[in-house]
Amino acid sequence: xxxxxxxxxxxxxxxxxxxxxxxxxxxxxxxxxxxxxxxxxxxxxxxxxxxxxxxxxxxxxxxxxxxxxxxxxxxxxxxxxxxxxxxxxxxxxxxxxxxxxxxxxxxxxxxxxxxxxxxxxxxxxxxxxxxxxxxxxxxxxxxxxxxxxxxxxxxxxxxxxxxxxxxxxxxxxxxxxxxxxxxxxxxxxxxxxxxxxxxxxxxxxxxxxxxxxxxxxxxxxxxxxxxxxxxxxxxxxxxxxxxxxxxxxxxxxxxxxxxxxxxxxxxxxxxxxxxxxxxxxxxxxxxxxxxxxxxxxxxxxxxxxxxxxxxxxxxxxxxxxxxxxxxxxxxxxxxxxxxxxxxxxxxxxxxxxxxxxxxxxxxxxxxxxxxxxxxxxxxxxxxxxxxxxxxxxxxxxxxxxxxxxxxxxxxxxxxxxxxxxxxxxxxxxxxxxxxxxxxxxxxxxxxxxxxxxxxxxxxxxxxxxxxxxxxxxxx
Length: 475
Hints:
Blueprint: H1 3-34, H2 41-47, E1 49-54, E2 62-64, E3 67-69, H3 71-83, E4 86-91, H4 95-104, E5 109-115, H5 118-123, E6 124-126, E7 131-133, E8 135-140, E9 160-164, H6 168-177, E10 185-189, H7 194-202, E11 209-212, H8 213-222, E12 226-227, E13 236-243, H9 247-260, H10 264-274, H11 278-284, H12 289-292, H13 299-306, H14 313-324, H15 344-349, H16 358-379, H17 386-396, H18 398-410, H19 418-427, H20 432-435, H21 448-467
């Protein structure tokens, strides 16, 4: 075969190899583009928020009498304060999808009770322990049902045990099962939290589950018919998880955790959720939202009146908590009163006073919200941030909000945008260079109060949405 013919035959082969190589490189680049870069401490600080997933249960995160509480919640708030960033909390009780989100880089931290296992350490960074606990078997109290009672690990074989899928409890059962001649019937359950499984044991829907002892002890106050005496492990370290490679962020959190656990604040937080006698009182309360779905004794009243302004009743509840902590007798130092903390001149407009009922107070407050909303509808061209404007107006008065809009417009900012525009000028309206500006008509304003008022209500509303079901809004 001549050299020319050989080259002619070789060219298509070379071209095919070239195309294949290009396709492989293209696919590699696409995969690399899909992967999110590792987020380190400097990125968190630059972003200004720490993205965390936690789970809701009787100890980690819950609402009690309208107040957001929980061991993990308070620890994470303290961490965010240390980092000087905002805590952006997502609630997810599906452990598998939570780990997936962390691996993808959608969040920075899993802030929950995570056992540090060998398999997990290969995939993720872990902090130093924030607490310790043993794994215990949850079963019906043996004095009520002695048949099938499990005293020790060897008696687990042949038993059916339900556990959250992907949990360390499932991993522990597999290790125990592999040591015997008979298998344990392990039932991994998707998208379920261990406390829900505990309730199923207590209601005799299933026979057994496993929980961390500190969580089990708290739930025993709620379900006195469960037994938690059978230990399945020695005390285990419980920690937070971060994405693999976030070594600087992990190191900073570890240094903070080591110091924080020596403080009085940590001891108080730990006692509050695992040692306090008030735990039983909270769990039994009808306003323990995790169990009851209720926020306050005024839920029905707020559901009724929220409809008049097309609000979610949980948003109105968040406002009422901020105003009065659900106390109808609350009085402020400036004379505001009742659940909605109406100022006397506002209350007079709606024909209510300090002797009016809680219902009349709420009705008047909602009418005032509706009045302010109508004014804002005529004022705002872009109504994207209308809720923020409305909440701030309810707190400090519409005049000061209009002043802040005029200051924003004068300084080249968008007067219809709340964050980073109008909120900035409202926040600074206590400074002479701002409240003495010629465009300001209503003078001095203690702007920090409405600024934080908006943030706190919207933040509490997020928590209420996590706990109180939407379908209750129509009940």
